[in-house]
Design a protein that fits this description.
alpha+beta, Phosphorylase Kinase, domain 1, Transferase(Phosphotransferase), domain 1, 2 domains, 10 strands
């Protein structure tokens, strides 16, 4: 049960959320409509975003590039490959190094607000400090004609959300594949957390993967624990509702690396069962369930899940931080330890 103070906090968040998304949904630009759809998290979000991207791709390429900005002469823009909540991403060629890169322009170009610029630049600053196989690498940041951009590693693949949609039946039949995906996410987070960087928006859309590799992307909400300043959007709730932790909802000042681990636990639950652990008919109900309701035990949805994997998942989703995994390394060690035991048992059978 939530306390009166916690319920009051949820009510305030709901009002702020509705106030924030209303102008986004009413804005006529295709980019703002896309952002509004992403915030509402309605079922048609992905289909609408894919349709929107296809429509944009069909327009004159030069017009699109001019909308975003220009690059130094050593880069050649090729094509638009993605539109996100805070930027447009293009495939480009680094002429000097003769390799493909991804270039991300701030979403509203010259018209971006100062808070949007602050968040976008912060992402570049954070990612330039991180160098790990499980985290997308940023090579260069800059601004040309008052349009901010990031030059990043190009990773040709799809995101985990798309993978889940296509492989849902295979995933729920294969807990080891689910564990392998989660372990790779935890490897990247372990490194980021070791440098005091918290992602704060771990969700399937921010995980890229192919047959052999996985990368964490979009550190737009990231912050450093030791930083004297906290970059916000001017809106108290930061993150994606379905994958947020109880403390993101009720106690934002307490958000730390364990919040990222709760988000990973949410992803793990969804991979194993094909269902989100927390749902709600509206924002307030969803946040109330995350803060105060335990999800259905995974094995009640998918009996093929081993009991130990269920235990690990439930520990990752513990409401109280002291009952949750303290580090990504601890979470990962439990998964790897159980997989090693299962491998030995199969060897004896």
């Amino acid at each position: 049960m939530l306390t009166n103070q916690e319920q009051s906090q949820l009510n305030k968040l709901r009002l702020e959320w509705e106030k924030k998304q209303k102008p986004l949904l009413q804005n006529g630009s295709s980019f703002s409509q896309n952002r509004g759809a992403e915030l509402t998290e309605k079922t048609q979000t992905i289909d609408a975003r894919e349709l929107q991207l296809d429509q944009v791709k069909q327009k004159n390429t030069k017009k699109i590039i001019n909308l975003s900005g220009k690059l130094p002469e050593n880069y050649e823009l090729k094509q638009l490959i993605a539109i996100g909540g805070e930027g447009t991403v293009y495939l480009a060629k680094d002429i000097e190094k003769n390799k493909l890169v991804a270039v991300k322009f701030i979403l509203h170009g010259k018209n971006a607000s100062e808070k949007e610029r602050q968040r976008f630049r912060r992402q570049g600053e954070v990612l330039k400090k991180l160098s790990h196989p499980r985290i997308i690498q940023v090579y260069e940041t800059g601004s040309i004609e008052d349009v901010d951009y990031l030059v990043m590693e190009y990773f040709s693949t799809s995101d985990l959300l798309d993978f889940q949609k296509k492989q849902r039946d295979s995933l729920v039949q294969n807990w080891e594949l689910c564990s392998d995906i989660v372990e790779k996410i935890l490897e990247g987070l372990e490194y980021a957390h070791s440098l005091n960087v918290i992602h704060r928006d771990i969700k399937p859309e921010n995980i890229l993967l192919n047959e052999s590799d996985l990368k964490i992307v979009d550190f737009g909400l990231a912050r450093e624990v030791t930083s004297d300043h906290l970059v916000t959007t001017g809106f108290k709730f930061l993150g994606t509702p379905s994958y947020s932790s109880p403390e993101q909802t009720l106690r934002p000042k307490e958000v730390d690396s364990q919040s990222d681990l709760f988000s990973v636990g949410t992803i793990f639950y969804e991979l194993l069962t094909g269902k989100k652990p927390f749902t709600g008919s509206n924002f307030l109900k969803l946040m109330t369930n995350i803060a105060g309701q335990n999800p259905l035990p995974p094995r009640e949805i998918n009996p093929k899940i081993p009991e130990e994997i269920e235990r690990i998942t439930q520990k990752a989703l513990a409401k109280k931080k002291e009952e949750r995994y303290f580090t990504a390394q601890e979470f990962c060690a439990d998964l790897q330890g159980f997989r090693r035991i299962q491998k030995r048992l199969r060897g004896f059978s």
